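Possible regression after last week's pipeline update?

I re-ran a chain I had predicted before the update to compare outputs. Posting the input and the new output here so someone can diff against the archived version. Not blocking, just want to make sure nothing changed silently.
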Amino acid sequence: MHPLRKNRPLRRIVLASAVTASGLVMLLALKPHTAPAIAVAPAPAASSSSGATSGSGSGGSTATGTRTVTGETAQTRWGPVQVKITLTNGRITDVSAVQSPSDNPRDQEINSYALPELRREVLAAQSAKIDTVSGATYTSDGYRQSLQSALDSAGL
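New output (post-update):
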C-alpha cells in the first residue's frame, strides 16, 4: 500500500509540514545580488567661515579668505558619512570626517586607516575624484559623495 494513502493521515501531515518548512527556509535564504544604493540625506545647512569669524550660509563662491563648508550626510550600508572641508583662497587646505560609521570595533578599525588615507587623497587631488580605500568601499563612497556636496556648496 502506498505511504500517502488516506488511512495514514498523520504521515501526510508530517510530510507536508516538512516540505513547507524546507521551502520557507530556502526562500528566506535567498539574497539579492544587487549592490546596495547609497542614499543621501540633505544636511540642514552648510556652514562657512571667513577669517576668524564663523557664520551660517550656503558657502557662496568667494575665491579669497578661509571658510569651512560641511557636506551633506551620505547614508551608507554601515552608517552615515559626513565631511567638512576648509578652503583657503579656493584651495582645499583641510578635510575631516564629521560623521563616520562607528557602531562597532570593526567600523572603528576600518576608519582608523581609511579616513587618514581619504584625507591625503583629497588634499593631493583637490577634488572628489579620489580612489576607494581597499576594505572601506562603503565609507569611501560616502566620503566622496559628502565631499562632492561640500565642493558643490562652495561653488567649486
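Follow-up from reviewer: compared with the archived run. The longest strand covers residues 79-88. Marking as no regression found.
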